[in-house]
Amino acid sequence: IALGKTSLILVKLAELTQLTPVFPSQDPLDRADFNAVEYINTLFPTEQSLANIDEVVNKIRLKIRRLDDNIRTVVRGQTNVGQDGRQALEEAQKAIQQLFGKIKDIKDKAEKSEQMVKEITRDIKQLDHAKRHLTTSITTLNHLHMLAGGVDSLEAMTRRRQYGEVANLLQGVVNVLEHFSKYMGIPQIRQLSERVKAAQNELGQQILADFEEAFPSQGTKVAWLDKIDRRYAWIKRQLVDYEEKYGRMFPQEWCMTERIAVEFCHVTRTELAKIMRTRAKEIEVKLLLFAIQRTTNFEGLLAKRFSGCTLTDGTVKKTEVPPPSTNPFLEDETGTETDEIVIEKSDTDRPKKPKVPDNPFHGIVSKCFEPHLYVYIESQDKNLGELIDRFVADFKAQGPPKPNVDEGGAVLPSCADLFVYYKKCMVQCSQLSTGEPMIALTTIFQKYLREYAWKILSGNLPKTTSSSGGLTITSLLKEKEGSEVAKFTFEELCLICSILSTAEYCLATTQQCDLQQHTAVSAGPGCSL
Protein backbone atom coordinates (compact mmCIF):
# COMPACT_ATOMS: atom_id res chain seq x y z
CA ILE A 1 0.00 0.00 0.00
CA ALA A 2 2.79 2.35 0.89
CA LEU A 3 4.48 1.69 -2.45
CA GLY A 4 1.21 2.37 -4.22
CA LYS A 5 0.80 5.70 -2.49
CA THR A 6 4.37 6.53 -3.33
CA SER A 7 3.75 5.71 -6.98
CA LEU A 8 0.69 7.98 -7.09
CA ILE A 9 2.62 10.80 -5.51
CA LEU A 10 5.41 10.34 -7.98
CA VAL A 11 2.98 10.35 -10.91
CA LYS A 12 1.51 13.60 -9.67
CA LEU A 13 4.97 15.06 -9.42
CA ALA A 14 5.70 13.85 -12.92
CA GLU A 15 2.77 15.86 -14.23
CA LEU A 16 4.51 18.94 -13.00
CA THR A 17 7.39 18.19 -15.36
CA GLN A 18 5.35 19.83 -18.12
CA LEU A 19 6.64 23.13 -16.72
CA THR A 20 10.22 22.09 -17.42
CA PRO A 21 10.56 24.08 -20.71
CA VAL A 22 9.44 27.21 -18.86
CA PHE A 23 11.42 26.71 -15.65
CA PRO A 24 14.55 24.60 -16.29
CA SER A 25 15.57 22.44 -13.27
CA GLN A 26 18.14 19.79 -12.35
CA ASP A 27 15.59 17.78 -10.30
CA PRO A 28 15.09 14.23 -11.72
CA LEU A 29 11.32 14.68 -11.35
CA ASP A 30 11.48 17.56 -13.88
CA ARG A 31 13.04 15.48 -16.64
CA ALA A 32 10.97 14.74 -19.75
CA ASP A 33 11.95 11.03 -19.75
CA PHE A 34 11.11 10.56 -16.03
CA ASN A 35 10.58 6.86 -15.00
CA ALA A 36 8.86 6.36 -11.66
CA VAL A 37 10.12 2.79 -11.15
CA GLU A 38 13.69 3.80 -11.69
CA TYR A 39 13.31 6.76 -9.37
CA ILE A 40 11.79 4.51 -6.60
CA ASN A 41 14.59 2.02 -7.05
CA THR A 42 16.99 4.94 -6.65
CA LEU A 43 15.31 5.95 -3.35
CA PHE A 44 15.05 2.39 -2.05
CA PRO A 45 17.87 0.39 -3.51
CA THR A 46 17.58 -2.36 -0.80
CA GLU A 47 14.91 -3.90 1.39
CA GLN A 48 16.51 -2.35 4.45
CA SER A 49 15.98 1.13 3.01
CA LEU A 50 12.19 0.60 3.14
CA ALA A 51 12.37 1.20 6.85
CA ASN A 52 12.37 5.04 6.28
CA ILE A 53 9.67 5.04 3.60
CA ASP A 54 7.34 7.20 5.69
CA GLU A 55 9.98 9.88 5.98
CA VAL A 56 10.50 9.91 2.19
CA VAL A 57 6.76 10.09 1.55
CA ASN A 58 6.40 13.03 3.94
CA LYS A 59 9.17 14.92 2.12
CA ILE A 60 7.51 14.38 -1.26
CA ARG A 61 4.13 15.48 0.06
CA LEU A 62 5.73 18.62 1.52
CA LYS A 63 7.25 19.36 -1.87
CA ILE A 64 3.87 18.89 -3.56
CA ARG A 65 2.20 21.31 -1.16
CA ARG A 66 4.89 23.94 -1.84
CA LEU A 67 4.46 23.57 -5.59
CA ASP A 68 0.67 23.92 -5.24
CA ASP A 69 1.13 27.06 -3.19
CA ASN A 70 3.48 28.52 -5.84
CA ILE A 71 1.05 27.71 -8.67
CA ARG A 72 -1.84 29.26 -6.73
CA THR A 73 0.18 32.43 -6.11
CA VAL A 74 1.09 32.77 -9.78
CA VAL A 75 -2.49 32.31 -10.94
CA ARG A 76 -3.75 34.95 -8.48
CA GLY A 77 -0.98 37.31 -9.63
CA GLN A 78 -2.07 36.97 -13.26
CA THR A 79 -5.62 37.87 -12.24
CA ASN A 80 -4.39 41.08 -10.59
CA VAL A 81 -2.30 41.99 -13.70
CA GLY A 82 -5.37 41.86 -15.93
CA GLN A 83 -7.21 44.25 -13.62
CA ASP A 84 -4.26 46.66 -13.55
CA GLY A 85 -4.07 46.57 -17.40
CA ARG A 86 -7.73 47.49 -17.76
CA GLN A 87 -7.28 50.36 -15.35
CA ALA A 88 -4.21 51.65 -17.24
CA LEU A 89 -6.11 51.46 -20.55
CA GLU A 90 -8.97 53.52 -19.12
CA GLU A 91 -6.51 56.14 -17.88
CA ALA A 92 -4.81 56.29 -21.32
CA GLN A 93 -8.18 56.82 -23.04
CA LYS A 94 -8.97 59.67 -20.68
CA ALA A 95 -5.56 61.25 -21.38
CA ILE A 96 -6.13 60.98 -25.16
CA GLN A 97 -9.51 62.70 -24.81
CA GLN A 98 -7.88 65.53 -22.87
CA LEU A 99 -5.12 65.81 -25.55
CA PHE A 100 -7.71 66.08 -28.34
CA GLY A 101 -9.42 68.83 -26.42
CA LYS A 102 -6.18 70.80 -26.06
CA ILE A 103 -5.37 70.37 -29.78
CA LYS A 104 -8.79 71.72 -30.69
CA ASP A 105 -8.23 74.74 -28.46
CA ILE A 106 -4.84 75.41 -30.09
CA LYS A 107 -6.35 75.15 -33.57
CA ASP A 108 -9.10 77.62 -32.67
CA LYS A 109 -6.55 80.07 -31.29
CA ALA A 110 -4.36 79.70 -34.44
CA GLU A 111 -7.32 80.50 -36.70
CA LYS A 112 -8.07 83.59 -34.63
CA SER A 113 -4.40 84.67 -34.84
CA GLU A 114 -4.34 84.16 -38.62
CA GLN A 115 -7.43 86.29 -39.02
CA MET A 116 -5.89 89.01 -36.86
CA VAL A 117 -2.64 88.97 -38.94
CA LYS A 118 -4.65 89.30 -42.16
CA GLU A 119 -6.42 92.34 -40.78
CA ILE A 120 -3.09 93.90 -39.76
CA THR A 121 -1.32 93.22 -43.06
CA ARG A 122 -4.22 94.48 -45.15
CA ASP A 123 -3.35 98.06 -44.25
CA ILE A 124 0.38 97.42 -44.76
CA LYS A 125 -0.24 96.11 -48.30
CA GLN A 126 -2.19 99.23 -49.15
CA LEU A 127 0.67 101.40 -47.91
CA ASP A 128 3.18 99.30 -49.84
CA HIS A 129 1.21 99.71 -53.08
CA ALA A 130 1.00 103.44 -52.47
CA LYS A 131 4.75 103.64 -51.88
CA ARG A 132 5.48 101.69 -55.08
CA HIS A 133 3.23 103.90 -57.17
CA LEU A 134 4.72 107.04 -55.63
CA THR A 135 8.29 105.81 -56.36
CA THR A 136 7.35 105.00 -59.95
CA SER A 137 5.84 108.44 -60.40
CA ILE A 138 8.91 110.21 -59.03
CA THR A 139 11.22 108.11 -61.23
CA THR A 140 9.12 108.84 -64.30
CA LEU A 141 9.18 112.56 -63.57
CA ASN A 142 12.97 112.48 -63.19
CA HIS A 143 13.29 110.65 -66.50
CA LEU A 144 11.00 113.17 -68.14
CA HIS A 145 13.12 116.02 -66.82
CA MET A 146 16.29 114.32 -68.08
CA LEU A 147 14.70 113.64 -71.46
CA ALA A 148 13.55 117.21 -71.97
CA GLY A 149 16.90 118.67 -70.97
CA GLY A 150 18.81 116.06 -72.98
CA VAL A 151 16.87 116.79 -76.16
CA ASP A 152 17.57 120.54 -75.86
CA SER A 153 21.29 119.90 -75.27
CA LEU A 154 21.40 117.40 -78.12
CA GLU A 155 20.00 119.88 -80.61
CA ALA A 156 22.39 122.61 -79.43
CA MET A 157 25.49 120.36 -79.65
CA THR A 158 24.43 119.14 -83.07
CA ARG A 159 24.37 122.70 -84.36
CA ARG A 160 27.84 123.33 -82.88
CA ARG A 161 29.18 120.01 -84.29
CA GLN A 162 30.38 118.81 -80.90
CA TYR A 163 30.45 115.17 -81.95
CA GLY A 164 32.42 113.87 -78.95
CA GLU A 165 29.87 115.21 -76.46
CA VAL A 166 26.94 114.29 -78.70
CA ALA A 167 27.99 110.60 -78.82
CA ASN A 168 27.63 110.10 -75.05
CA LEU A 169 24.57 112.34 -74.74
CA LEU A 170 22.68 110.69 -77.60
CA GLN A 171 23.10 107.23 -76.10
CA GLY A 172 21.81 108.49 -72.75
CA VAL A 173 18.80 110.19 -74.33
CA VAL A 174 17.90 107.05 -76.28
CA ASN A 175 18.12 104.96 -73.10
CA VAL A 176 15.86 107.35 -71.20
CA LEU A 177 13.40 107.46 -74.11
CA GLU A 178 12.97 103.68 -73.87
CA HIS A 179 11.30 104.16 -70.48
CA PHE A 180 8.52 106.15 -72.17
CA SER A 181 7.71 103.57 -74.86
CA LYS A 182 4.31 102.85 -73.23
CA TYR A 183 3.51 106.57 -72.92
CA MET A 184 3.75 107.43 -76.62
CA GLY A 185 0.04 108.19 -76.66
CA ILE A 186 0.75 111.37 -74.69
CA PRO A 187 1.31 114.27 -77.16
CA GLN A 188 4.23 115.82 -75.26
CA ILE A 189 6.12 112.49 -75.06
CA ARG A 190 5.49 111.80 -78.73
CA GLN A 191 6.82 115.26 -79.62
CA LEU A 192 10.05 114.66 -77.66
CA SER A 193 10.50 111.33 -79.42
CA GLU A 194 10.12 112.98 -82.83
CA ARG A 195 12.68 115.63 -81.90
CA VAL A 196 15.19 112.89 -80.97
CA LYS A 197 14.65 111.11 -84.30
CA ALA A 198 15.07 114.40 -86.17
CA ALA A 199 18.34 115.09 -84.31
CA GLN A 200 19.62 111.61 -85.20
CA ASN A 201 18.85 112.10 -88.88
CA GLU A 202 20.48 115.52 -88.87
CA LEU A 203 23.58 114.14 -87.17
CA GLY A 204 23.87 111.34 -89.73
CA GLN A 205 23.64 113.71 -92.66
CA GLN A 206 25.96 116.25 -91.04
CA ILE A 207 28.67 113.70 -90.17
CA LEU A 208 28.48 112.16 -93.63
CA ALA A 209 28.91 115.58 -95.20
CA ASP A 210 31.91 116.30 -92.95
CA PHE A 211 33.54 113.03 -93.96
CA GLU A 212 32.95 113.70 -97.62
CA GLU A 213 34.54 117.10 -97.19
CA ALA A 214 37.53 115.78 -95.26
CA PHE A 215 38.17 112.72 -97.49
CA PRO A 216 37.25 113.66 -101.03
CA SER A 217 39.47 111.10 -102.79
CA GLN A 218 38.76 107.42 -103.34
CA GLY A 219 41.87 106.37 -101.40
CA THR A 220 40.39 107.35 -98.02
CA LYS A 221 38.89 103.88 -97.57
CA VAL A 222 42.34 102.37 -97.08
CA ALA A 223 43.91 105.28 -95.20
CA TRP A 224 43.82 103.81 -91.69
CA LEU A 225 46.51 101.66 -90.08
CA ASP A 226 44.64 98.35 -90.34
CA LYS A 227 44.93 98.58 -94.14
CA ILE A 228 48.45 100.01 -94.29
CA ASP A 229 49.77 96.98 -96.15
CA ARG A 230 47.53 97.94 -99.07
CA ARG A 231 49.58 101.13 -99.47
CA TYR A 232 52.77 99.16 -99.87
CA ALA A 233 51.16 96.59 -102.15
CA TRP A 234 49.95 99.48 -104.35
CA ILE A 235 53.41 101.11 -104.66
CA LYS A 236 54.95 97.71 -105.48
CA ARG A 237 52.52 97.28 -108.36
CA GLN A 238 53.11 100.84 -109.53
CA LEU A 239 56.90 100.42 -109.49
CA VAL A 240 56.70 97.18 -111.46
CA ASP A 241 54.37 98.79 -114.00
CA TYR A 242 56.63 101.85 -114.25
CA GLU A 243 59.75 99.82 -114.94
CA GLU A 244 57.97 97.80 -117.61
CA LYS A 245 56.59 100.87 -119.41
CA TYR A 246 59.04 103.72 -118.75
CA GLY A 247 62.19 102.18 -117.29
CA ARG A 248 64.19 102.41 -120.53
CA MET A 249 63.26 106.04 -121.20
CA PHE A 250 65.56 107.44 -118.46
CA PRO A 251 69.28 106.89 -117.85
CA GLN A 252 70.00 104.23 -115.26
CA GLU A 253 72.15 106.56 -113.16
CA TRP A 254 69.13 108.78 -112.56
CA CYS A 255 67.60 106.01 -110.37
CA MET A 256 64.06 107.10 -111.23
CA THR A 257 62.43 104.05 -109.65
CA GLU A 258 64.22 104.72 -106.37
CA ARG A 259 63.25 108.38 -106.48
CA ILE A 260 59.59 107.47 -106.93
CA ALA A 261 59.80 105.06 -103.99
CA VAL A 262 61.48 107.67 -101.78
CA GLU A 263 58.88 110.29 -102.67
CA PHE A 264 56.13 107.79 -101.87
CA CYS A 265 57.76 107.21 -98.47
CA HIS A 266 57.86 110.94 -97.70
CA VAL A 267 54.22 111.43 -98.65
CA THR A 268 53.14 108.32 -96.77
CA ARG A 269 54.98 109.43 -93.63
CA THR A 270 53.33 112.84 -93.75
CA GLU A 271 49.83 111.48 -94.37
CA LEU A 272 50.14 108.79 -91.73
CA ALA A 273 51.30 111.34 -89.17
CA LYS A 274 48.35 113.56 -90.03
CA ILE A 275 45.73 110.83 -89.81
CA MET A 276 47.20 109.42 -86.59
CA ARG A 277 47.03 112.86 -84.97
CA THR A 278 43.38 113.10 -86.01
CA ARG A 279 42.44 109.62 -84.81
CA ALA A 280 44.87 109.26 -81.93
CA LYS A 281 42.20 107.84 -79.60
CA GLU A 282 41.59 104.92 -81.96
CA ILE A 283 45.20 103.69 -81.91
CA GLU A 284 45.57 100.41 -80.06
CA VAL A 285 48.72 98.49 -79.24
CA LYS A 286 47.98 95.59 -81.55
CA LEU A 287 47.08 97.92 -84.42
CA LEU A 288 50.17 100.08 -83.86
CA LEU A 289 52.54 97.10 -83.79
CA PHE A 290 50.91 95.68 -86.90
CA ALA A 291 51.46 98.94 -88.78
CA ILE A 292 55.07 99.21 -87.57
CA GLN A 293 55.81 95.63 -88.57
CA ARG A 294 54.42 96.10 -92.07
CA THR A 295 56.28 99.40 -92.42
CA THR A 296 59.66 98.04 -91.27
CA ASN A 297 59.20 95.07 -93.60
CA PHE A 298 58.61 97.51 -96.47
CA GLU A 299 61.70 99.53 -95.51
CA GLY A 300 63.72 96.32 -95.47
CA LEU A 301 62.42 95.48 -98.92
CA LEU A 302 63.51 98.92 -100.18
CA ALA A 303 67.00 98.31 -98.73
CA LYS A 304 67.27 95.04 -100.66
CA ARG A 305 66.04 96.63 -103.91
CA PHE A 306 67.74 100.05 -103.86
CA SER A 307 71.08 101.44 -102.74
CA GLY A 308 69.76 104.65 -101.11
CA CYS A 309 71.90 106.92 -103.29
CA THR A 310 68.98 109.33 -103.82
CA LEU A 311 68.56 110.07 -100.11
CA THR A 312 69.70 113.59 -99.23
CA ASP A 313 71.83 114.31 -96.18
CA GLY A 314 69.78 114.76 -93.06
CA THR A 315 66.71 113.04 -94.46
CA VAL A 316 67.45 109.67 -92.93
CA LYS A 317 70.42 108.90 -90.75
CA LYS A 318 72.12 105.58 -91.02
CA THR A 319 72.17 103.53 -87.89
CA GLU A 320 75.68 102.90 -86.65
CA VAL A 321 76.70 99.39 -85.76
CA PRO A 322 76.71 99.13 -81.95
CA PRO A 323 79.76 97.60 -80.26
CA PRO A 324 79.53 93.95 -79.28
CA SER A 325 77.97 93.35 -75.87
CA THR A 326 77.80 90.49 -73.42
CA ASN A 327 74.35 91.52 -72.23
CA PRO A 328 72.01 88.58 -72.84
CA PHE A 329 69.01 90.87 -73.12
CA LEU A 330 69.77 92.01 -76.68
CA GLU A 331 70.76 88.66 -78.13
CA ASP A 332 68.98 87.47 -81.26
CA GLU A 333 65.78 85.64 -80.50
CA THR A 334 66.07 81.90 -81.05
CA GLY A 335 63.47 79.61 -82.51
CA THR A 336 62.70 78.13 -79.09
CA GLU A 337 61.20 81.42 -77.91
CA THR A 338 58.82 82.01 -80.76
CA ASP A 339 55.95 80.62 -78.77
CA GLU A 340 56.18 83.40 -76.14
CA ILE A 341 54.51 86.78 -76.61
CA VAL A 342 54.86 90.25 -75.14
CA ILE A 343 51.59 92.04 -75.74
CA GLU A 344 48.96 89.63 -77.04
CA LYS A 345 48.79 86.18 -78.64
CA SER A 346 49.29 87.47 -82.14
CA ASP A 347 51.99 87.14 -84.77
CA THR A 348 52.29 90.91 -84.93
CA ASP A 349 53.20 91.11 -81.24
CA ARG A 350 56.05 88.59 -81.14
CA PRO A 351 59.56 89.92 -80.51
CA LYS A 352 61.63 89.93 -83.68
CA LYS A 353 65.31 90.05 -84.43
CA PRO A 354 67.11 93.40 -84.20
CA LYS A 355 67.06 95.69 -87.21
CA VAL A 356 69.69 95.42 -89.86
CA PRO A 357 72.06 98.26 -88.94
CA ASP A 358 73.03 99.25 -92.50
CA ASN A 359 69.49 99.87 -93.81
CA PRO A 360 69.54 103.39 -95.32
CA PHE A 361 65.74 103.42 -95.51
CA HIS A 362 65.20 102.63 -91.85
CA GLY A 363 62.85 105.25 -90.37
CA ILE A 364 61.96 106.86 -93.69
CA VAL A 365 58.28 105.95 -92.99
CA SER A 366 58.28 104.36 -89.55
CA LYS A 367 59.56 107.57 -87.96
CA CYS A 368 55.97 108.84 -87.94
CA PHE A 369 55.02 106.21 -85.35
CA GLU A 370 57.40 107.44 -82.65
CA PRO A 371 55.06 110.13 -81.22
CA HIS A 372 52.46 107.42 -80.63
CA LEU A 373 54.68 104.83 -78.99
CA TYR A 374 53.33 105.95 -75.62
CA VAL A 375 50.49 103.49 -76.36
CA TYR A 376 53.05 100.68 -76.40
CA ILE A 377 54.70 101.96 -73.22
CA GLU A 378 51.34 102.17 -71.40
CA SER A 379 50.51 98.64 -72.51
CA GLN A 380 53.82 97.36 -71.14
CA ASP A 381 53.12 99.19 -67.88
CA LYS A 382 49.77 97.40 -67.58
CA ASN A 383 51.20 94.01 -68.55
CA LEU A 384 54.07 94.28 -66.06
CA GLY A 385 51.62 95.22 -63.30
CA GLU A 386 49.56 92.13 -64.07
CA LEU A 387 52.74 90.03 -64.18
CA ILE A 388 53.83 91.21 -60.71
CA ASP A 389 50.33 90.49 -59.34
CA ARG A 390 50.51 87.01 -60.83
CA PHE A 391 53.90 86.43 -59.19
CA VAL A 392 52.45 87.48 -55.82
CA ALA A 393 49.43 85.23 -56.27
CA ASP A 394 51.60 82.27 -57.32
CA PHE A 395 53.86 82.74 -54.29
CA LYS A 396 50.83 82.81 -51.96
CA ALA A 397 49.27 79.76 -53.63
CA GLN A 398 52.42 77.64 -53.92
CA GLY A 399 54.15 78.87 -50.80
CA PRO A 400 57.90 79.36 -50.29
CA PRO A 401 60.39 77.05 -52.01
CA LYS A 402 60.70 73.59 -50.51
CA PRO A 403 63.70 73.34 -48.15
CA ASN A 404 66.57 71.59 -49.86
CA VAL A 405 70.15 71.46 -48.73
CA ASP A 406 71.51 71.63 -52.28
CA GLU A 407 69.12 74.28 -53.55
CA GLY A 408 68.46 76.29 -50.41
CA GLY A 409 69.77 79.49 -52.01
CA ALA A 410 68.29 79.02 -55.48
CA VAL A 411 66.97 82.08 -57.35
CA LEU A 412 63.17 82.36 -57.34
CA PRO A 413 61.69 81.26 -60.71
CA SER A 414 59.58 84.43 -60.94
CA CYS A 415 62.78 86.53 -61.11
CA ALA A 416 63.95 84.72 -64.24
CA ASP A 417 60.49 85.11 -65.80
CA LEU A 418 60.56 88.85 -65.08
CA PHE A 419 63.92 89.41 -66.78
CA VAL A 420 62.92 87.22 -69.74
CA TYR A 421 59.96 89.53 -70.17
CA TYR A 422 62.25 92.57 -69.84
CA LYS A 423 64.49 91.11 -72.52
CA LYS A 424 61.63 90.67 -74.97
CA CYS A 425 60.36 94.19 -74.27
CA MET A 426 63.81 95.68 -74.91
CA VAL A 427 64.26 93.76 -78.16
CA GLN A 428 60.87 94.82 -79.39
CA CYS A 429 61.28 98.45 -78.32
CA SER A 430 64.71 98.63 -79.99
CA GLN A 431 62.99 97.84 -83.29
CA LEU A 432 60.51 100.66 -82.77
CA SER A 433 62.78 103.35 -81.39
CA THR A 434 66.01 103.79 -79.41
CA GLY A 435 65.17 107.31 -78.26
CA GLU A 436 62.61 108.63 -75.81
CA PRO A 437 60.39 105.47 -75.90
CA MET A 438 63.36 103.37 -74.80
CA ILE A 439 64.00 105.79 -71.95
CA ALA A 440 60.33 105.65 -70.94
CA LEU A 441 60.46 101.86 -71.02
CA THR A 442 63.52 101.97 -68.77
CA THR A 443 61.53 104.01 -66.26
CA ILE A 444 58.79 101.38 -66.33
CA PHE A 445 61.41 98.68 -65.69
CA GLN A 446 62.70 100.61 -62.67
CA LYS A 447 59.18 100.94 -61.28
CA TYR A 448 58.40 97.24 -61.42
CA LEU A 449 61.82 96.17 -60.21
CA ARG A 450 61.07 98.16 -57.06
CA GLU A 451 57.64 96.55 -56.81
CA TYR A 452 59.18 93.12 -57.24
CA ALA A 453 61.68 93.89 -54.50
CA TRP A 454 58.96 95.02 -52.09
CA LYS A 455 56.17 92.56 -52.89
CA ILE A 456 58.13 89.38 -53.67
CA LEU A 457 61.43 89.75 -51.82
CA SER A 458 61.05 92.00 -48.77
CA GLY A 459 57.35 91.19 -48.39
CA ASN A 460 58.01 87.46 -47.97
CA LEU A 461 60.85 87.59 -45.45
CA PRO A 462 60.04 85.69 -42.21
CA LYS A 463 58.63 87.69 -39.31
CA THR A 464 60.56 87.98 -36.04
CA THR A 465 59.25 88.33 -32.51
CA SER A 466 61.61 91.19 -31.75
CA SER A 467 60.39 93.38 -34.61
CA SER A 468 56.72 93.87 -35.35
CA GLY A 469 57.53 95.23 -38.81
CA GLY A 470 59.31 92.07 -39.95
CA LEU A 471 62.73 91.58 -41.45
CA THR A 472 64.35 93.59 -44.21
CA ILE A 473 67.27 92.66 -46.43
CA THR A 474 69.31 95.47 -44.84
CA SER A 475 68.67 94.13 -41.34
CA LEU A 476 69.72 90.64 -42.42
CA LEU A 477 73.11 91.93 -43.57
CA LYS A 478 73.83 93.63 -40.22
CA GLU A 479 75.76 91.62 -37.64
CA LYS A 480 73.94 91.16 -34.35
CA GLU A 481 75.11 89.75 -31.05
CA GLY A 482 73.51 88.38 -27.93
CA SER A 483 69.74 88.44 -27.66
CA GLU A 484 69.37 90.48 -30.84
CA VAL A 485 70.24 87.48 -33.03
CA ALA A 486 66.98 86.18 -34.52
CA LYS A 487 66.43 82.43 -34.53
CA PHE A 488 64.91 80.90 -37.66
CA THR A 489 63.79 77.46 -38.63
CA PHE A 490 65.48 75.47 -41.37
CA GLU A 491 62.67 76.35 -43.83
CA GLU A 492 62.94 80.07 -42.99
CA LEU A 493 66.68 80.01 -43.52
CA CYS A 494 66.20 78.40 -46.94
CA LEU A 495 63.65 81.08 -47.84
CA ILE A 496 65.98 83.87 -46.68
CA CYS A 497 68.84 82.41 -48.75
CA SER A 498 66.62 82.20 -51.83
CA ILE A 499 65.50 85.81 -51.41
CA LEU A 500 69.09 87.04 -50.94
CA SER A 501 70.26 85.05 -53.98
CA THR A 502 67.39 86.48 -56.01
CA ALA A 503 68.25 90.02 -54.90
CA GLU A 504 71.90 89.49 -55.86
CA TYR A 505 70.86 88.10 -59.25
CA CYS A 506 68.56 91.09 -59.84
CA LEU A 507 71.35 93.52 -58.98
CA ALA A 508 73.89 91.90 -61.31
CA THR A 509 71.45 91.55 -64.20
CA THR A 510 70.12 95.09 -63.77
CA GLN A 511 73.65 96.53 -63.90
CA GLN A 512 74.36 94.67 -67.15
CA CYS A 513 71.05 95.81 -68.61
CA ASP A 514 71.71 99.43 -67.60
CA LEU A 515 75.16 99.37 -69.23
CA GLN A 516 73.77 98.03 -72.50
CA GLN A 517 70.91 100.53 -72.55
CA HIS A 518 73.36 103.42 -72.19
CA THR A 519 75.05 102.14 -75.31
CA ALA A 520 71.85 101.40 -77.27
CA VAL A 521 69.79 104.50 -76.52
CA SER A 522 70.27 107.26 -79.08
CA ALA A 523 69.19 109.97 -76.67
CA GLY A 524 69.01 113.57 -77.78
CA PRO A 525 70.29 116.59 -75.89
CA GLY A 526 69.28 116.52 -72.27
CA CYS A 527 68.17 112.89 -72.35
CA SER A 528 69.75 110.42 -69.99
CA LEU A 529 69.00 107.18 -68.29
From TrEMBL:
GO biological process entries: retrograde transport, endosome to Golgi
UniProt keyword terms in alphabetical order: Coiled coil
Coiled coil, from the record: 89-130, 189-245
Matches recorded under InterPro entries: Vps53, Vps53_N
Superkingdom: Eukaryota
Domain Vps53 N-terminal per the UniProt entry, residue ranges: 33-219, 220-395
Recorded GO CC terms: cytosol; GARP complex
Keyword Coiled coil listed: yes
UniProt-annotated stretches for the region Disordered: 317-337
Keyword Coiled coil among record annotations: yes
Protein name: VPS53 subunit of GARP complex
Phylogenetic lineage: Eukaryota, Metazoa, Chordata, Craniata, Vertebrata
